[in-house]
UniProtKB/TrEMBL annotation:
Subunit note: Isoform MOCS1A and isoform MOCS1B probably form a heterooligomer.
Organism (species): Cyprinus carpio carpio
Protein name per the record: Molybdenum cofactor biosynthesis protein 1
Residue stretches making up the Radical SAM core domain: 50-263
Annotated InterPro entries: Aldolase_TIM, Elp3/MiaA/NifB-like_rSAM, MoaA, MoaA-like, MoaA_NifB_PqqE_Fe-S-bd_CS, MoaA_twitch, MoCo_biosynth_MoaA/MoaC, rSAM
Amino acid sequence: MALRQVCSMLFFNIICSSDIPLPLEKKSYSCSQRRVLKDVLPFSAFLMDSFGRRHNYLRMSLTEKCNLRCQYCMPQEGVTLTPRSQLLTAEELLMLARLFVREGVNKIRLTGGEPLIRPDVLPIIAELRKLEGLKTIAITTNGMNLTRLLPSLKKTGVDLLNISLDTLVPAKFEFIARRKGFHKVMEGIEKAIEMGYNPVKVNCVVMRGLNEDELIDFVSLTERKPLDVRFIEYMPFDGNRWNFKMMVSYQEMLDCIKQKWPNLEPVPGEEMDTAKAFRVPGFQGQLGFITSMSDNFCGSCNRLRITADGNLKVCLFGNSEVSLRDFLRSGATEEELLHIIGAAVGRKKKQHAGMFNISQMKNRPMILIGG
């Protein structure tokens, strides 16, 4: 790997000082972008886009199935599930994970559907844990099966937990999720804290007329618990009947919370963080806002997604996908896969189309992407 990366660096040095054209599958790199690449070696050119963004964070969906039916994630009529034979096997998932980690990915998040309903989730995590260079394994879960699996998840090597919870009112939970389960989720959150996860991230999609009146209650949870409550702007996906009037913007949420806690203070974060973080002085936990709609963070995006059926999505809101599964099953070599991945990453746009355009674009329901 080291030799190939050195050769890759030499290649870009030559390109910046000559008229030699780049291969079709790679975008042109300016000399300033080449210097950025040089500064971060070892990191693969295949995972850097034409705007200099390095993609070291991979989200892998383990399943399209879920034991909830959340309104913002799944259409009311449900979804047509991909036949099992067309989903990635554990071996294929791990092969792709190894390839991405070898090229510079150091964080993998397992998503769904609901990842914890996949029967072989623990063996998959155990194999991921063996990958040299993979620093962080995270899981996003609805929390329904979390209490039962937490000891094994901790032992197998899960570093971070994100738990979806959109309301603190049991009856409202059932309305939003179209299933019962509020107390199971709360039990899972408490168990995660008890087992030493710090912080435990709680994802809350805020929808006007449903739960925007609970912002203060959610922030209050962070007073005595090591929670990182993340308020997510309502985003349009196929079948979730997104309406601009239902979207509560980051600024509106922030203003509401500051009425209760005017001394709310920002928390410094990393450049690649998706959330704008804040803390009430004296509180144990913190809160954040994921502002995909009103104030996108595309310029620092470092994330790629692989869906349960093996498609690579370079942007959550993009409708362009490449089937890595098909290339895998047709016998593509690792080097050929890298060129396919590099071509897709190279075509990644500077930013998404904006919320009104996104709402008109064809895309998967969120459950078929990976929450």
